[in-house]
Amino acid sequence: MDAESTQIDTDLLKKHLVEVAEHEAELTDHVYQSLFAKRPDAVELFGTYSRANQQKMTAETLGAVLNMLDQEHWLGEYVHAMGLRHQFSYETPTDMYAPYAEAMLEALAAVSGSAWTPELERAWKAALDRVNEMMTAAYVQTSH
Ligand code: HEM
User: Fold this and answer.
1) How large is the average pLDDT for residues 118-141?
2) Taking 80 as the threshold, does the pLDDT of residue 131 lie above it?
3) Among 49, 78, 82, which is best to mutate for testing ligand 1, by the most ligand atoms less than 8 A from CB?
4) At what angle do helices 118-137 and 75-88 cross, to 10 degrees?
5) Would the pLDDT of 141 be above 90?
6) pLDDT at 1
7) Exposure winner among 62, 68, 138, 143, fewest CB in 10 A?
C-alpha cells in the first residue's frame, strides 16, 4: 500500500487519472472491447444489460487506484469486499485479472493519444497490478 516503496510516480499518475476520468465512457468501451477480444469466455460473465455495471467497474478501478495513491486506510477492506463479490456473485476466475489490467492499459493509451508515455504506462501498470493483487487476495479457497 506504500506507493513509494515500488516507485509509482504518484503525482504523474494522479494528474493523468483526473484527466482520463473525464473520458470514462470512452474508456469503458475500449476496456471491454479489448478484454472480450483477449478473453471471449469473459463475455458470458456479464449480464445482457451490464453496461451500467461495466461503467461502474471502470470508475471503481480508477477510484481504487486514486485511493491507493492517497493511502486511504479503508481501501483494503473495501476492495476485499469487491473481490469476494467477484469470486462468489460474478464467478470471475483469478486468471482474468491480468487480461483486465492489460485491457485497461490499452484503453488508457487509446484515450490519452499523444499524451501517453512509457513513464505513464509503467506507473499505471504497477498501480493496476496492485489493485488486482488486492482483489484476488480476497478470494478464499474452496473445495470445488
Ligand atoms: C481491478 C479489478 C476490478 C474491479 C475494481 C472491479 C469492480 C467492479 C464493480 C464495482 C462492479 C459493479 C458491481 C459491484 O459493485 O460489485 C463489477 C461488476 C462485475 N465485474 Fe468487476 N472489477 C474488477 C475486475 C473484474 C474482472 C477481471 C472481471 C472478469 C473479467 C470482472 C467481472 C465482473 C462482472 C461479471 C461483474 C457483474 C457485471 C454484471 O452484472 O453485468 N471484474 N466489478
Assistant:
1) 96
2) yes
3) 82
4) 70
5) no
6) 46
7) 143
Output the pTM of the full model.
0.93
Going by CA atoms, what residue is nearest to atom 31 of ligand 1?
A: 92
Q: In Å, what is the CA distance from 35 to each residue of 1, 87, 93?
A: 26, 18, 14
> In whole angstroms, how large is the CA radius of gyration of the chain?
15
User: Which residue among 31, 57, 77 is best mutated to probe the pocket of ligand 1, counting the most ligand atoms within 8 A of its Cβ?
Assistant: 57
Is-contact 69 123, C-beta < 8 A? no
Cα(6)–Cα(114) distance, integer angstroms: 26
> What residue ranges do the domains of the chain occupy?
3-137
Q: How far is ligand 1, taken at its centre, from the CA of residue 121, in Å?
A: 22
- Cα–Cα distance between 85 and 69 in angstroms, integer? 24
Please name the residue ranges forming H helices in 21-113. Answer: 24-38, 51-69, 75-88, 97-112
